[in-house]
Amino acid sequence: MSYDAELGDHKQGDAVSQQVQPSDVRVALAMPEELAARQFTEAEWDRLREIADPGDRVLTEYHSASAAAVLAEVEVLITSWGAPRIDATALSAAPKLRAIVHAAGTVRFLVADEVWDAGISVSSMADLNGLPVAEYTLAMILLENKRVLPVTEEFRRLRDRPAEEWYEPDAGNYRKRVGLISASRIGRRVAELLRPFDLEVVIADPFCDAAEIAALGATKIELDELISTSDIVSLHAPLLPETIGMIGTELLQQLRDGATLINTARGKIIDHDALITELRTGRFRAVLDVTDPEPPPADSPLWDLPNVVLTPHLAGSKGAEIRRMANGAIDEVARIVRGEPLQFQVPPERRNTVA
Length: 355
Prior knowledge:
By secondary structure, the chain is an alpha/beta fold. It has helices spanning 3-7, 14-18, 33-39, 42-51, 65-71, 88-92, 113-117, 126-146, 148-158, 185-193, 210-214, 223-229, 249-252, 272-279, 322-338; strands at 27-30, 58-59, 76-79, 99-102, 121-124, 176-181, 199-204, 219-220, 232-235, 260-263, 285-288, 308-310.
């Protein structure tokens, strides 16, 4: 399935809701009011009102009498970052609830087991939140292969054009190997985004066969080979007990000289003590959008190492991008009104891995 096809009709926006006649399905938003004002602008409220009855109040808690009155009638709850947890008590106050649509990423800590056990449908916009992560990763791959960031710093230091020999002989985006660790949602999207470029893409993922990875335009190889032969190594594995610290001294020492390690997944996947030790050798570079802890302590060497690029967990949806997830959530409400399956429903049996 192609990158665009996987994202589906979230791009259609208003076209999705225009196919739906106004209904009396009761919808409520649950999230901090400040976030609701940024994520659901008047345009999003207008779209929602065209297909359902969202009322005019944003829930920030579930225990007051006024919140209980809303919950008593709500059929679809739209949540986002910072929403109060939906536990057994909240569920008991919402007897008509049939779906939770999360206009953000993970629902693992938002939805209690009782909700899943009650058969409530849960949908997450994690796929849409992953889109800017994939775009960030693509940008960093291209910039790092071209050596734009270190050359920029040298240019600034010299206040003159760096000598030609300062550039590495093989710098550039031509026939370089890009290694992706995990064919996760975001890993797959990065592979799709890399298709137009003259780059070799390899993926290490024990849960995907070679044919599935070949369909992404990539080649399946083992993790050790990926680490030791790739010019760019990009982490896209989920944070699970077995992935905590999976990138440690042994693998870091296998990185080829001049390589770049990119982490947009989770900081805990890398052993940061080992990472700092290996980065101090100057053999390779690192682009870290996530760290452990996050942000790094003020005295962390990561702040001062010249071969490290730190960004403050901004790869995911920021600014106007959060409205993509709002519109994706509204599209899901439209599907509920039409009696159609949810596009981004989280399978209950996989809630601890994909949610």
